[in-house]
């Protein structure tokens, strides 16, 4: 291993999943290449943010969701400054400045600042008892509220909101979900699949209010109620904002990097400054931003290859698939579920068994799939979408799955 004094310095801003996955990939390629320093806003190692819902529900503990506990950084010779976020990047001097005043020089800089919860800009959104659902501190706040009991209102009927709502219900709270759209999880599910999910969640004990907009959070010194635009009011001791996230670009923008909705990167995950790379939810690649793990892992692989000087990879956006289990209901969504002009749909409904399948076709290719209840063939449909496979020969059997479409041997 090279002497650290002569090694180039890599500073990573953000101790979350995207940044640390990139470091992991880099260590696989060339463990001694860089002298690595990591700055994180939270006062601990890197954990799996995807597992915050099971942590809230009591199915996991903090140790079980840690990806890189503190000893891991020591083992790999990485300097970790946890709980001391970077507040400024001086590109001219090539240093970052942390909140504590500490400065760290860099030869390469990796921005992995993630995203921040979108807190609805309505009166009362800073009252005690209003919380996002983004980190361990938020989970601690929710657990404290659950111990006191009472009523929770979750604003947002996407995956995160529903998982949080179900977890709080399991912790003994009386929970209502308020969602602005006509169907739950409208980014991943069509209206029929959303309706099946709603029915199932309501049977489990959640209250769900659709086509509803929160207009105000009422309370003097603590949350007391959520007021809706239609004049309705929901009593609340806790309000969880799960109405989406916004890329955390303030640091990059202040440093003069080119930003639109997020920090703009090229196919190598490099920003407009060739010394600075960015990965994860804070980046924008060819007009798209990212919230799922699969594309972020691919970004990490590509970025690490370029940081290691093995720059033969390019980041290419691919169709994504989402496999979910919300309150015991299996859901699978892949590709373009909306369809466009000229697309066709194949639909199978079996209300008795709670099975719903909808495939979107363009010509002889599958371009999207939504499955509820029976999701076993989801990966096969996803493979057909990715390959652009011609399904003409088994189109009439397509809804019944791979087993009935396989060629006879």
UniProtKB/TrEMBL annotation:
Keywords: FAD, Flavoprotein. The keyword Calcium does not apply. The keyword Flavoprotein applies. Its cofactor is FAD. Residues 321-388 form the NADH-rubredoxin oxidoreductase C-terminal domain. Pfam families: Pyr_redox_2, Rubredoxin_C. Residues 9-289 form the FAD/NAD(P)-binding domain. Belongs to the FAD-dependent oxidoreductase family. This is NAD(P)/FAD-dependent oxidoreductase.
């Amino acid at each position: 291993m090279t002497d650290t004094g002569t090694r180039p310095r890599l500073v990573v801003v953000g101790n979350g999943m995207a940044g640390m996955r990139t470091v992991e990939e880099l260590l696989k390629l060339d463990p001694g290449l860089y002298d690595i320093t990591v700055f994180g806003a939270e006062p601990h190692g890197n954990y799996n943010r995807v597992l915050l819902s099971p942590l809230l529900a009591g199915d996991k503990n903090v140790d079980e969701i840690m990806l890189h506990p503190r000893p891991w950084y020591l083992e790999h010779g990485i300097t970790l400054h946890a709980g001391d976020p970077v507040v400024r990047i001086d590109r001219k001097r090539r240093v970052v400045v942390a909140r504590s005043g500490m400065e760290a020089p860099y030869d390469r800089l990796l921005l992995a600042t993630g995203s921040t919860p979108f807190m609805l800009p309505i009166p009362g959104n800073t009252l005690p008892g209003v919380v996002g659902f983004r980190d361990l501190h938020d989970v601690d706040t929710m657990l404290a509220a659950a111990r006191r009991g009472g009523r929770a209102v979750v604003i947002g009927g996407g995956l995160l909101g529903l998982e949080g709502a179900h977890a709080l219900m399991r912790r003994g709270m009386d929970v209502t979900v308020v969602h602005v759209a006509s169907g739950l999880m409208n980014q991943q599910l069509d209206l029929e699949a959303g309706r099946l999910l709603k029915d199932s969640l309501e049977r489990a004990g959640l209250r769900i209010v659709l086509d509803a907009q929160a207009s105000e959070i009422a309370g003097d010194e603590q949350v007391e109620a959520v007021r809706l635009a239609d004049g309705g009011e929901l009593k609340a001791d806790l309000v969880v904002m799960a109405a989406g996230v916004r890329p955390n670009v303030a640091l990059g923008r202040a440093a003069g990097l080119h930003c639109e909705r997020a920090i703009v990167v090229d196919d190598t995950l490099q920003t407009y400054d060739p010394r600075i790379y960015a990965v994860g939810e804070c980046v924008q690649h060819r007009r798209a931003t990212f919230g799922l793990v699969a594309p972020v892992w691919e970004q990490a692989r590509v970025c690490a290859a370029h940081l290691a000087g093995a720059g033969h990879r390019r980041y290419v956006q691919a169709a994504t698939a989402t496999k979910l289990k919300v309150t015991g209901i299996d859901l699978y969504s892949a590709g373009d579920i909306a369809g466009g002009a000229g697309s066709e749909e194949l639909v199978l409904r079996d209300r008795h068994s709670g099975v719903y399948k909808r495939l979107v076709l363009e010509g002889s290719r599958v371009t999207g799939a939504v499955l509820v209840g029976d999701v076993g063939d989801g990966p096969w449909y996803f493979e057909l979408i990715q390959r652009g496979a011609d399904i003409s020969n088994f189109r009439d059997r397509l809804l019944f799955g791979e087993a009935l479409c396989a060629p006879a041997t």
